Amino acid sequence: MKVLWIFAHPEQRSLNASLMREGLSELSAQGHATVVSDLYAMGWKAALDADDVRTGLREAPGTAGTARPAPAPRLRIGAEQELAYAEGRLSDDVREEQRKIEWADTLVFHFPMWWFGPPAILKGWFDRVLVQGFAFGLHGLDGRVLRYGEGGLAGKRALVVTSVGARESGFGPRGIHGHVDDVLWPMLHGTFWYTGMAPYEPFVVYGADRLTDPVRDRYARALRERLRTLPDAEPLAYRSEHGGDYDGDLTLRESIEPSAAGLAVHRIDRGRGAASQPDAEASARPAQAV
C-alpha cells in the first residue's frame, strides 16, 4: 500500500501521536510506503478564503480615470476552486496535499474527536484540498454526476483513527451520544464516499483520557493488527448512487427495505458498530495527554 497519514493533534506527547508512531512503524515493517501530513506541525492554514483561489489576474480591473480599483466579483467558492485547480492557480500548500492524495491508494485520517467532529484544522484540510474538479464535481461520459462511490478519488480507501473521552457504551446503538457510525457519517459517507473513497470501519479509542498504560498498549496492538489486515479488509458496504438502489430524486427505492429508515439503510449489509477493540474503561488514571 501507499499510505497518506493525515494527523490532526497539536501535542506530540499525546496518546494519538504515540498511536500514529505505532501505526507508521507497523506499516513500514509490512513493507508499505508512507507519507505523513502532520497538520499542526505544518502550520496548516485551516480557513478557506479568497487567497486560496484568486490572484491579481482574477481581480476586477480599475475603472479608467479612478484611483480605486473596482471591487472583485463575489466569491463563489466551488466555481472559483474548480477554475483555480484547472488553471494551476491553487495555493502551493493545497496543491502539495493533492499531489500526496494522487500518490496514495489509502488515506488514514487520525484525530481526536472534539465536539462530535474533527478539529477545525482537519475540517479546513477538507475544505481547502478536496476542491471541485479534483475530488468532486466530475461527470461521466454520459453526463452523470460522479459521486457516492464514484468521483475524483474513486479507487482509494480511507480509514478513520480517532479517540473519544466517553466509554464505548455511550456510542453504542442506544448510547446517549449517538451511534458512532452516525456520529462519523458526515465524514465516512458525506466526504469519503461522496468523493469516491471507500471507507473502512473506523478505529475508535474509547475513554481516551482515562487510559492506563496497559490499556493503551492493548489499543496499540489492536491498531497494528488493523493495519496488518487492512490490505485484505472489506470497506463499509455503502450503496452507490448509480447502482440502481436510488430513484431520480436520490431517495432509496420503496422496494428496498420499505419498513426501514435512518442512516443504516444506506449500507447494503446493514452492519453497525466498530470492530472489536480493547476495553478502555479499565481505570481512572491517565497515562498521558490524549
Structure write-up:
- With 290 residues, the chain is an alpha/beta fold.
- The chain has one domain: Flavodoxin domain (Rossmann fold, 3-Layer(aba) Sandwich).
- The chain has 8 helices and 6 strands.
- It has helices at residues 15-29, 39-42, 77-86, 92-103, 120-129, 180-183, 185-195, 213-229, and strands at 2-7, 33-38, 106-112, 157-163, 198-199, 203-205.
- Strands 1, 2, 3, 4, 5 and 6 form a 6-stranded parallel beta sheet that branches.
- Strand 1 (2-7), helix 1 (15-29) and strand 2 form a beta-alpha-beta unit.
- Helix 1 packs parallel to helix 8.
- Mean pLDDT is 87; it is low at 56-61 and 280-289.
Brief synopsis:
It comes from Streptomyces marispadix. The protein has 290 residues and is α/β, with parallel strands linked by helices.
Give a quick set of tags describing it.
alpha/beta, NAD(P)H-dependent oxidoreductase, 29% helix, Rossmann fold, 290 residues, 6 strands, Flavodoxin_fold, single chain
What sort of overall outline do the alpha carbons produce when their principal axes are compared? globular
DSSP summary, beta strand count: 6
CATH topology heading: Rossmann fold
Number of domains: 1
CATH architecture: 3-Layer(aba) Sandwich
Residue stretches low in confidence (pLDDT < 50, at least 5 long) are 56-61, 280-289
At the first level of CATH, what is the class? Alpha Beta
The helix/strand class is alpha/beta
Q: What's the total helix number?
A: 8
How confident is the prediction overall: mean pLDDT?
A: 87
Determine Rg (CA atoms, Å): 21 Å
Q: Report the span from N to C terminus.
A: 28 Å
Largest sheet features? 6 strands, parallel
Superfamily (CATH H level) name: Flavodoxin domain
One letter per element, helices H and strands E, the order comes to EHEHHHEHEHHEEH
What percent of the residues sit in helical stretches (DSSP H or I)? 25-40%
